Amino acid sequence: xxxxxxxxxxxxxxxxxxxxxxxxxxxxxxxxxxxxxxxxxxxxxxxxxxxxxxxxxxxxxxxxxxxxxxxxxxxxxxxxxxxxxxxxxxxxxxxxxxxxxxxxxxxxxxxxxxxxxxxxxxxxxxxxxxxxxxxxxxxxxxxxxxxxxxxxxxxxxxxxxxxxxxxxxxxxxxxxxxxxxxxxxxxxxxxxxxxxxxxxxxxxxxxxxxxxxxxxxxxxxxxxxxx
Length: 227
Known about the structure:
This protein is an alpha/beta fold.
């Protein structure tokens, strides 16, 4: 896997987080489960869609996957536009060495903060930049998400409350679609802050409560140290 890590140090926050592997506690093994079907979920969906451009119904390279997987991990603070330009460059490459057509850059937000991602369309050639706001489990199971994810040439996950990613996306249709698109076509994927967290196999989810590094070190079995 090809990995580009962008370190961007923003102003230090008092509620700094830690990611660690500790002994299991009941909160660590809690699984979010729902019996909501896709039809019912669609009726209750609060999907927000904001787009700049027109979606194309193909990947930049058609059915030809990239040769290597690509990930961008960005710290909190202002977005690094060079990272998006790099992702767009990767997005237009094809596994056979040719250059594909401009594709769809899909930004996904968990509803924590209203994203402003309009600038992505000016840092590289894209057919569409679309932001999908997925604020709950019903929306994460909305079939209306499928055409956007199936045709995504690159996917970006915004920051915010990482507990929302875990509680609202785990085991959902959205999680399945993203995993399949990245696995099958090796499209570039990235995230910032909480968006990085959701990309990993093990993560600190800050649920049911948050904890600072100093407190976690003195009380590693606290219910707030939830992985």
